[in-house]
Amino acid sequence: MELIQNTPDLSAYLAADEVIDHDHPRVRETAARLAAEAADSYAYAQLAFEFVRDTIPHSQDSGDPRVTWRASDVLEQGTGICYAKAHALAALLRAEDIPTALCYQRLADDDGDGHVVHGLVALRFNGAWHRQDPRGNKPGVDARFSLEGERLAWIPDPQSNEVDYPVLYAEPHPTVLSVLRAAPDRPSLWKTLPTAL
Asked: How do residues 170-193 score in pLDDT, each as one tens digit?
């Protein structure tokens, strides 16, 4: 699949904003701590990915009712769904000047009834984009950091009307962001998750 930037301006994938707030002290402190352990930007990217994947539980898996969407809040509260975790990873990567995009898949819902949009990131290394899924592993899910072929949590099944969206967004998709902002808690959020972009 060819990944398509929604803007040709690569600097947009390094920008800080209200959601990917890599200028926030919590994001800067976390990035600095991880960078101190890394020999180079590749090692840093892998450490940041594993930090978000492994130390910030997916709130559905952990039963946490809080809804986070701003990267600094995800890091401070230590919880988030796939979109929020993608925002946190994007902020950590951009904090160390690694261009990072937000991207999405349309997958069958866990209960087998309908579809849901799933969030992940793509980072740019050696002139190419590489998608990564920091959702968090669990039985049946084994996402890994890789620049040599994708190791995502899920591979969409076209026969089930699942889709890899090819667009790389510099900012969160408005549909995703609006449901995150509007949800008072995760059980409410689960009823309003987007089914398509």
From this structure: 999 999 999 999 999 999 999 999
- At 72, is the secondary structure helix, strand, or coil? helix
Show Cβ contacts of residue 46 under 8 Å, excluding neighbours closer than 6 positions.
Answer: 145
What is the CA angle 175-135-192, rounded to 5? 30
Residue 113 pLDDT grade (very low, low, confident, very high; cuts 50, 70, 90): confident
CA dist list (Å): 29 to 23, 45, 75: 10, 16, 10
- CATH number corresponding to 4-192: 3.10.620.30
Domains in the chain: boundaries: 4-192
Let me know the angle formed at the C-alpha of 181 by 164 and 57, rounded to the nearest 5 degrees.
65
pTM: 0.97
Contact 44, 96 (CB under 8 A): yes
- Amino acid in the structure at residue 196: A
Which phi and psi angles does 194 have, rounded to 5°?
-65, 145
The pair of structure tokens assigned to 14 is 């390094």
